[in-house]
Automatic annotation (TrEMBL):
CDD domains to which the protein is assigned, alphabetical: Radical_SAM (cd01335), Twitch_MoaA (cd21117)
The protein's name: GTP 3',8-cyclase
Reaction(s) catalysed by this chain's protein: GTP + AH2 + S-adenosyl-L-methionine = (8S)-3',8-cyclo-7,8-dihydroguanosine 5'-triphosphate + 5'-deoxyadenosine + L-methionine + A + H(+)
Keyword Iron-sulfur: yes
Cofactor(s), by name: [4Fe-4S] cluster
Organism: Mucilaginibacter terrae
Amino acid sequence: MKENVLIDQYGRQLNYLRLSVTDRCNFRCYYCMPEEGIDFARRKDLMSFEEMLQLSTIFCNLGVSKIRITGGEPFIRNGIMPFLQKLRVVDGLDEITVTSNGTLSAKYQAGLLQMGIRKINISLDSLSRERFEQITRRDNFESVYAGIFKLLNSGFEVKLNCVVAENKNIQDIIPFIELTRENALSVRFLEEMPFNGSDGSQVLSDWNHVRIYDYIHQHYPNAGQLISETSSTSINYKIPGYKGSFGIIPSFSRTFCGTCNRIRLSATGELRTCLYGLPATNLRDLLRKGASTEDIEQQILIAVSKREADGFAAEAASMGEINTSMSVLGG
């Protein structure tokens, strides 16, 4: 494996690949896509698992050591487990993690544990069945909630991701933190982002990371800040005596861009060096045109070399075209 190859012009090393295996999802969360869904990719336009494995191997040869599997909902794609079995032995890959909506992950617990995949993020925006259904447009709260504790009891490290928005789930913030009293959970509160597949006219929630923190601090003035990895997107806290922790992710404020170590590959092969930017190239197309490993490596290196300073610069360069569904971007 080549060491420290993916370093952008600002000195940031990219060693973390977020790999989307599908743009399809069995939920219709308001902040991700319209209720009627989006124009999902045709099957022939999706990368095959063989193509994903080939590209993952190339990324690891360039210094990527961690891959997060995302979607859509990754577990709805047939063949996901055999793919993970092959991915886990790629040279240079130290860790595989997964993000899921929790509806299907429990079905695959034993297989994931056998592969050594123990870190899973569950998107959960409310602890109320009614609010959960309003947010996801699906009535699956009970199974998702029960599945979280099955994962915990099976030995998984579980993080809950909650997108915070006015008139949606503010009343859930404190109950989420209370979940960490007796459970070794990490709850992260995220600012709402504009990636919902709409026409861009939506008004985003004004609950930014400062307001979320102030609200929590009023209830828990003794919460102490934890030391996190330099590349962490979340500012993490722990309440004395609680088993778990909570964090706040400035996903729209983008205060963590200076240490971002992520690169993204969509299910159709689009390579993004920033969530807020346009695709730099399409690696699926290069593969299908017969490009060599060296050619693909070169295109990745060129994309990284042109990486913007932060998400605001990337957004400006995209000329405002940031309303793609998060299901397509892969988070």
